[in-house]
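pls ignore typos typing on phone
MRU + seq
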Amino acid sequence: MKVNGVNYRTIWLEDGSSPCVKIIDQRYLPHRFVVEPIESFDGLLRAISEMHLRGAGLIGVAAAFGIYLAVWEQRNLVNFQEALEKCALKLIKTRPTAVNLRWAVERQLEVLAGVENPDDRVAIARQTAIDIAEDDAGCCRKIGLEGVGLIEDIARNKNGGVVNILTHCNAGWLAFTDYGSALAPVYEAWRRGVRLHVWVDETRPRNQGASLTAWELLNEGITHTVIADNTGGHLMQHGLVDLVLTGADRITTNGDAANKIGTYLKALAAHDNGVPFYIAAPSSTFDWSLSDGLSQIPIEQRHPDEVRYVGGWLDGRLQNVLVCPDESPAANFAFDVTPARLISGIITERGICKPLPAGIKKVFPEKFNY
Ligand code: MRU
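k done
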């Protein structure tokens, strides 16, 4: 996507004599556009756990680059494999809900297994990270093309009237290498001239909607309105939402989907009001080993201070303001699971499927052994 007329991805390599991974530091958006160079495994680990970057797809890609950095640093060690596995575990532990991260790390470990030559190790890890980043962007581009029909159909039914879409958190290009998942069909529809408007849930506690989704949409010139998280139900009751479109951090084979905390409530409101509720995600977000999201997906709990404080830009720097009594404890569940029965369909790079084992199997038959 373009920022001030320049094409950017959210993560890229600028290797010199040693590896350098560059990322857009999302902590500063929408106030400043900051690019951060990362030259060590520990630096990348910190970037993921401290949310310099986030989003299911992007943390997967970042983890793949993390393995590349780890391989570079440890390429000559006698106990290379053991050291690499330690790094892999550290990466997987940073963000336990989004399965893309584990998927990318496992893909790296698989191709590196048994490679003895240090130069080969580095070359393989580097190329695999680049491939994972490319795949991620490619899948998101296809999600846009597969999902745009939903928006075009609504526009047609409204005789060209404005299509109102509600989204939660940030599932735009900042959450992947490029294009995004939930926002990819929105961008495609906008490019095709569909008249649309996006309701942007602010998405407490970290406000990825207010800060990142709003910034992306503004950047593309797409009409949007930021709303407090609790507003969606009211809008749906009054016919002001035609479609809810969100991303996912992990989808199980029965069609349950974990996504940013609060998604479930939007799905309930959509169901009660007859509003279609779609999830958009690449195949790397499916956990083929789990068959029930509610009981099996681990839910990340982050630091309570993310709830107790609100962050923003003041006096030329990022600052946090306390919003509850200092003595009050807080709980910070970062994700919830929307049961399949509340989901109208899942938009993937291979098409839209029903959130049922049979529906998912139709699109990804090779993942099922029955
Ligand atoms: O905690 P985050 O910002 O990494 O949350 C993940 C997400 O970006 C959202 O849940 C999103 O909707 C999933 S799609 C990338």
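The first helix runs from residue 41 to 49. The pocket of MRU is lined by residues 54-57, 169-171, 175, 181, 208, 246-249, 259-260, 334 (CB under 6 Å). more later
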